[in-house]
Amino acid sequence: MHKNPVTIGPFESVGRAAALMNQLKIGGLPVVEKGKLVGIITSRDVRYCHPNRLVADAMSRNVVTVSPECSFWEAKEIMESHGIERLVVVRDGRTVGIITKSRLYAEIGKHVDALTGLNRAEFLQHKAAELLQSGQEITIIFLDLDNFGTIDKEFGHVIGDEILQQVGKILKSVIAEGLDYLCRYAGDEFAVVTVRPLEEAKQLSWQMIKALAGASWPQGIHVTASAGVAGGRRSRVRGEPNGTHNVRDLINLASLASTKAKREKRPVVVAGWVELEEVG
């Protein structure tokens, strides 16, 4: 976010607001009165408003705000759901920053894997925590390609990269938007957080494995994978110390299950359910 943004008072003129925006090359100003946010005025608001009118007459009073702890993805969803270009960041009723759409998207772009176009691991952790906060049970599918190191050594990294790109496309074609959230976790590892029940998630992992095994690959390479599945639900008692885990533990359980699947030459291993700590 842009910290300590320039603000304007509600009883200053629209012309003053327009001049500030032109001078600073920004598209909007939080409107603050006695230290409290009371509105926002944008370049669109001032465009057809007489410069002698008051900011209070031209500003939007219903300002969409977020806290400094808001994640990139949460801010993106809020911005898109309201169809706005900027979010005012507020702490204890005071304006501490402003997030613009262009800057937010640039930051999110840093968390997208350049090779596959999929989100990175940070997104999976964020989405899992968000789903848990909304009261949904979640399941993690952790998928690890078999013998990818050997493929890289025998056929080279260019072919290896082609395979990883194709894996991303195939997995994306199998998952369902709104139910499953896919990322390239690291290297030749991919992961999905899903709101499907454990048994359905297990079936999805089988579909992913079969889709990879049945695809045509560069130079006739046979690509297979091993999957681990682990589900979690929120503990009902906040701070319950015994037997609870967090999202990172759940991802780790699924990861270990995929390692076990690979070791035992089983396509899918289910680790089962765990109780997860309250989040947020």
Throw out a few tags for this protein.
12 strands; alpha/beta; six-stranded mixed β-sheet; four-stranded mixed β-sheet; 280 residues
Summarize the structure.
The chain has 280 residues and is of the alpha/beta class. The chain has ten helices and twelve strands.
Helicity range of the residues? 40-55%
Total beta strands: 12
- In DSSP terms, counting alpha (H) and pi (I) runs of 4 or more, how many helices? 10
Q: Which radius of gyration do the C-alpha atoms yield?
A: 24 Å
Mean pLDDT: 90
**What structural class do you assign from the helix and strand content?**
alpha/beta
Task: Describe the protein in words.
The model is unreliable at 237-242 (pLDDT under 50). The chain contains ten helices and twelve strands. The chain has helices at 14-24, 43-47, 55-58, 72-82, 101-109, 121-133, 148-155, 157-174, 198-213, 247-263, and strands at residues 2-3, 28-33, 36-42, 65-66, 86-91, 94-100, 138-145, 180-186, 189-194, 225-234, 244-245, 268-276. The two termini are 21 Å apart. It is α/β, with parallel strands linked by helices and 280 residues long. This is Diguanylate cyclase (GGDEF)-like protein. Pfam families: CBS, GGDEF. Residues 1-58, 59-115 form the CBS domain.
List the helices and strands and how they pair.
Layout: E1 2-3, H1 14-24, E2 28-33, E3 36-42, H2 43-47, H3 55-58, E4 65-66, H4 72-82, E5 86-91, E6 94-100, H5 101-109, H6 121-133, E7 138-145, H7 148-155, H8 157-174, E8 180-186, E9 189-194, H9 198-213, E10 225-234, E11 244-245, H10 247-263, E12 268-276
Parallel strand pairs: 4-5, 10-12, 11-12
Antiparallel strand pairs: 1-6, 2-3, 5-6, 7-9, 7-10, 8-9
